[in-house]
Design goal:
Length: about 350
């Protein structure tokens, strides 16, 4: 099913071909028709949802002008007046097109719900045990070796997403996405393009807001609405939620939607605190939560093995492996080919065999 029919009318046919290909690569649910420079009125007469044109501005419905300079961009939702920078990032442009489509037509494209998504939460009772590294590495392992698209979703108080993913100073992110969900009448939460960052493995994450993580300010009902939009986008096969040590009501929602919970401890850490945390989680979620828990001991000297005792969660041991973590010029990155990555692979294989989908 094609959700949005898009026309492109441009003076530069080579540019038009390149833009058409880029748009359908980023968002396969578009259908794009390329027109000659003298075929604008033919495009208008066709049953197209939107038309992008770099011809002189004409006040015609559904025609969005492509402009040569970023300073000429227009985004006036109240008047329905829009202009897009023709040489900008195509992912950001696609996100803008989706936003404009909803604003002008009042319609919301239906997601292609052909994929089911697997949801994993990563948390701990103590800080500094590597929740972010494990969560991100699980998503990276999935995109690289299992061929699926993965979302890393941070619920840290102060996000460390930008340590691993290069941000776009002019790009939109979580703050604007949440604003549109709860304040824009025609906005569909399945419109994720334009609000996301990507790492070198292809893992996606929302551009973080400045200051405190805005997800933690949501009510339980608002988080459910936010998360449902992500699932219904049918964009991901795996969502990994980095809950960290957070124990707020909204973090309990994250544990609730997860089908597996990776509980991380440090080698030789005090078990009393960990047991208290898990008992609290069982008190809030019910005893069935024990069937979702997988333990991972990080910074271990035992290597990437796993153990299982009757009645206890499966335990994995992630080796101490400083050689798997690198500092780049702009971002840090994790190697998933060395000892730490092999431990992550063991966890990922176990999850793949035992994880249910939603």
């Amino acid at each position: 099913m094609e959700n949005i029919a898009l026309g492109i009318v441009t003076k530069d046919r080579y540019y038009g071909r390149a833009l058409s290909l880029a748009i359908i690569t980023v968002h396969p649910e578009f259908s794009v028709t390329l027109f000659e420079v003298n075929q604008l009125y033919k495009a208008i007469e066709m049953d197209l949802d939107l038309i992008l044109s770099d011809l002189p501005k004409e006040d015609m419905p559904r025609v969005i002008q492509l402009v040569d300079k970023p300073s000429m961009v227009i985004r006036d939702s109240d008047k329905g007046n829009f202009a897009l920078y023709k040489y900008g990032n195509v992912r950001k442009m696609t996100g803008d097109i989706l936003f404009i489509y909803s604003n002008i037509t009042g319609r919301k494209p239906v997601g292609m719900k052909t994929m089911k998504v697997k949801v994993v939460a990563v948390g701990s009772s103590e800080g500094g045990v590597g929740c972010t590294s494990v969560a991100l590495a699980l998503a990276q392992e999935y995109t690289r070796y299992r061929g699926g698209r993965a979302l890393y979703l941070s619920m840290e108080e102060l996000e460390s997403t930008l340590i691993y993913m290069e941000g776009d100073p002019k790009g939109r992110g979580m703050g604007e996405y949440l604003y549109h969900i709860f304040h824009s009448q025609n906005f569909s939460p399945t419109f994720l393009e334009g609000y996301l960052l990507r790492d070198s493995y292809g893992v996606e994450a929302f551009g973080p807001s400045k200051g405190r993580n805005l997800l933690l300010e949501l009510s339980e009902e608002e988080f459910a609405q936010f998360f449902t939009g992500i699932v219904e986008s049918a964009r991901y096969k795996l969502i990994v939620i980095d809950v960290g040590t957070n124990m707020s009501k909204v973090s309990m929602c994250a544990y609730n939607v997860a089908k597996k919970i990776i509980f991380i401890e440090r080698q030789n850490s005090t078990s009393i605190r960990g047991k208290g945390f898990l008992n609290y989680l069982a008190f809030i979620q019910g005893n069935e939560v024990w069937g979702k828990i997988v333990k991972a001991v990080n910074f271990s000297y035992r290597g990437h093995i796993h153990m299982e005792e009757e009645g206890d969660p499966v335990s994995f041991y992630l080796p101490r492996d400083d050689g798997s973590f690198y500092s780049g010029e702009k971002t840090d990155w994790i190697s998933i080919d060395n000892g730490f990555g092999l431990g992550i692979k063991k966890i990922s294989e176990f999850i793949e065999r035992n994880l249910t989908q939603i």
